[in-house]
Amino acid sequence: MKTNDYVKYMTEQFINYIDRPKEKRDSIKQEKEELKAPLSTSMFGMLPLSIALYMKKISNRKEKEKEKKSI
Q: Is the pTM for the entire model greater than 0.85?
């Protein structure tokens, strides 16, 4: 892609963006934000989720042991 083509493309995109009503631009921006992955996932991948699941598993085991002792 030559520089002239790139400038032409960017100009068209900018004009399309400016021509949209503000409410529509805001709604599109809000939809993109809702679809975006959480920061912890994008920074560290699945590691935070796996740690959270592991901690939940440990707490569930402790609760089950307490229930067995009380019976």
A: no
